[in-house]
Design brief:
This protein is an alpha/beta fold. It has 10 helices and 12 strands.
Length: 314
């Protein structure tokens, strides 16, 4: 995490420098271009008022609280979200623990007791679709009226849209990934979609055919469409990414029925990556995952996939 960014989980022990800031509020899953539009407005207000830029967010994500059995849907790990917020100039992140007590709090009480009471915010910035409080009863208008009543300011940011008039949203990014369209996801995010994780040991079958892989679990990340991708991998070589090819799925040729896994083969790389934290960015979709007649046929296809990925990433 960027040392300039401070993460605050305990609102009862805030340093003086964390109070009285201008804050953007929301889940900020993925910190896509719509989120960045909200953050840009908040940054401008913070600069005018001579205070720090902060973010009020919720962890765990409210969607996980209300639907704990739902499949993974996150566009970025908490760690990655903090990195992206720091890149936008955020200095304080107030990560409110989303639990039953917070879910039951009315919108008015949330503003009065948390945003004004504990955080003493000078101003707040929210997106046009921000909903909060018990039963999502609070709207942007509620937020603005309550802040104005306390003599503070609020700014609501209109929907930001892409060149094709599509609204930037986490839902739209997930839809693009599910459709096997990482380029569209990248246009909405402002960068390629990536999965972060620690390399874990696998069956090491790739080594036997000249294509060793770094194996990562998906964790809470939303999986793109199962298949083979051209990727770029950070964390293997300091200071630069390494091109590669990756399979995302359940590996039907070698047994299947397993939890989805990301297996990345890094081009022109040798070294021990076990335990290393990598970030695998999806650049292009090559083909869907499928079952091959035998391991030899799979090996031949991997060679074809690798050549295609090299060409795309050259």
């Amino acid at each position: 995490m960027n040392p300039a960014l401070r993460l605050h989980r305990d609102l009862d022990r805030l340093p003086a420098a964390a109070r009285g800031t201008v804050a953007a509020i929301g889940n900020f899953d993925g910190v896509h271009l719509g989120h960045r539009a909200v953050l840009a407005v908040a940054a401008e207000m913070a600069a005018r008022q001579g205070t720090a830029l902060s973010v009020v967010t919720f962890e765990p994500h409210p969607r996980r609280f209300f639907k704990p059995a739902e499949p993974p849907f996150r566009l970025a790990s908490v760690r990655r979200k903090l990195e992206l917020l720091a890149q936008c100039g955020v200095r304080h992140v107030f990560a409110l623990r989303f639990n039953a007590a917070l879910a039951a709090r009315t919108a008015e009480a949330f503003v009065d007791e948390i945003l004004l009471g504990r955080l003493d915010l000078a101003a707040i910035v929210a997106g046009y679709d921000f909903a909060f409080g018990r039963a999502r009863g609070g709207t942007p208008a509620t937020l603005a009226a309550r802040m104005d009543r306390a003599g503070r300011s609020a700014h609501i940011v209109a929907a930001a849209t892409a060149d094709d008039a599509a609204v930037y949203s986490s839902t739209a990014v997930r839809a693009a990934l599910a459709a096997g369209d990482p380029q569209r996801a990248a246009r909405l995010l402002g960068r390629p979609y990536a999965i972060d994780g620690h390399v874990r040991s696998g069956a090491q079958r790739g080594r036997t055919i000249g294509f060793p892989t770094a194996n990562l679990g998906l964790g809470a990340h939303v999986p793109p469409a199962f298949g083979v991708y051209a990727v770029r991998v950070e964390g293997a070589v300091p200071g630069r990414s390494v091109a590669g090819v990756a399979n995302l799925g359940v590996r039907p040729t070698v047994g299947g029925g397993l939890a989805p896994q990301l297996e990345a083969h890094l081009f022109d790389f040798s070294g021990d990556l076990y335990g290393r934290r990598l970030r695998v960015a999806f650049e292009a979709f090559l083909r869907p995952e499928r079952k091959f007649a035998d391991f030899a046929a799979l090996k031949d296809q991997i060679a074809v996939d690798a050549a295609a990925a090299r060409k795309i990433l050259a």
